[in-house]
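Notes to self, Scarecrow-like protein 14:
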Amino acid sequence: MGASPPSDSSSDESEYSETVLKFMTQILLEDNIEDKPCMFFDPLGLQITEKSFYDALGKKYPPSPNQYKPPSYINHNPDTKNRSHNGPKSNFTNTDPQLLGHLGEYNSSFSQATLPGHYVSQPDLQSNTDGLELLTRNFLLDTESMLQFRRGLEEASKFLPRSNQMVIDLERSNIRHRYNPGSFSKVSQQWEGEDQKKNHEREDVDLEEGRINKQPAVSAEENELSDLFDKVLLSTDALSTLGSDNKTYQQPQQANGGKNRAKKQRKKKDTVDLRTLLNLCAQAVSAGDNRTANELLKQIRKHSSPFGDGSQRLAHFFANGLEARLAGTGTGTQIFYTALVSKKISTYEIVNSYKVHLSVCPFKRMSVFFADQMIYKVAEKATSLHIIDFGIQYGFQWPILIQKLSKRSGGPPKLRITGIELPQPGFRPTEALEETGSRLGKYCERFNVPFEYHVIASQNWETIQIEDLKIDRNEMLAVNCLYRFKNLLDETFEIETSPRDAVLNLIRRMNPNIFVYSICNGAYNAPFFVTRFREALFHFSALYDIFDVTLPRENKERLLFEREFYGREAMNVIASEGLERVERPETYRQWQVRTKRAGFRQLPLDKDIVNILRSKLKEWHHEDFVLNEDNHWMLQGWKGRIVYASSCWVPA
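result:
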């Protein structure tokens, strides 16, 4: 594939940066958005709702783990299956948070409510419980000593730590409520070297899975976009707008004194090594030493805060996860999390905070621009383009590609998008996804691009059949996934064929012209809790540090994003086990091996695209953002730590 002209790529990157933010503004301007739930992935939100229903029925939660997995739902309504840009109108209605990672992501259960006739279900694979139990027993046999305890289904095996533990006579503390912003200490931290000892504690695998959840469906009417907003969407002066946005967010921090003031504080006040405290607390929790864990948590709480610097905020949310784990997996975690998130957050607030995140953090914008450019090059002469998007959510990725296709010499191709997502709770599992198609259809109408849209709502993506995708071999086929593969289950649950490999094999059977995906580069998917905790600490340290440099501490969107995105994800990694733990990232090298094994060949990076992105990164963003290349992967990171990676593939 030939390289794109640098000038065109530069212009397109600028247009994307502007268009995606304005596309989000379109959502924020819609009526009644404050009353609509959010589509971003939330691993615990649905389970909390489930528990309230079980409490109302007087039944114990969680239910038996031997339940079936929920079916997939495919929209076969002729009015919505192939939605054209002038098709029937419907309101943009979201449902309970189900992301990304960041967005994005998977809840452990789904409503089995009676569905309209145009939804059909697919059988899903059953959990390999016997294989999982055998694997867990093998792990336990490799240890020198073992202490078995838990209640009921929450059996676990925990090992005593090899090092001496400080035991302090402290009674078990109650679950903490929302942190008082006026009580945190302004003590600085020094992030010293990490303990390099190998940990061999193996945590149990929790097989408990949520059950049926029913929520009333929400119906609404379509709101036409205003003429003023049309002008905003079509704005081409992207570079100046984006630059001013970044300056707006960064100037208040510079006025606060930045690093110089922090250095002065460190000279005057005692230092606290929060990283060491967190690791010691994780080891105590893993060993079942609740007294030591509670004492360490008390010290961490004293020196952490959701309103402090990056390290204090990180310690605060990691302490939440540790305390939830002490409360117990399953019901205890849900009760704790409900107490933490007592205030209902509107979709407007969530989307607005995510918009601010996109403005100051380039990772997702760079990944989307990279994917759109590669897809456009394949479809440069195609008469029909079919995009299968795993994890479409709001469809933020596609407005700039639609604009670019409309400018193609010879006219735009017919665009068909198949959006794959999790089914939403309620009686209309695909309603929010249909609204994404309706919004994209309006965008295509504005640019005279023929458009069709198809929805597949599936709880288990590996069970999707080729026939459901309606692939036409005369079309140019592109498969895309942005940061969502991390939520697929791995070999821990399906020893013979993991869901991750099954999805890659499904994509290989599609025989796409191009397969583009981006992943969250992380190593915190280890079954050993202490190892997983340490790796998560490294990863989230970089994410919280980014906001500490690019946004002022008092920025309310930053506070909300750190709590609702980073905080929830960290809670899931630390406090959950088994099927409840849905945050399972792997490194880009691991994904490279998986993808090659599935029968794909990796394409080299387009040097012009990478150079343009590197140039814009240097021009628009903080100098500590990095963009590198390795083995045909485009790597993005912060201060040398790789956070995200993108690559392109074709069938071998």
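- The two ends are 16 Å apart (CA to CA).
- DSSP finds 20 helices and 13 strands in the chain.
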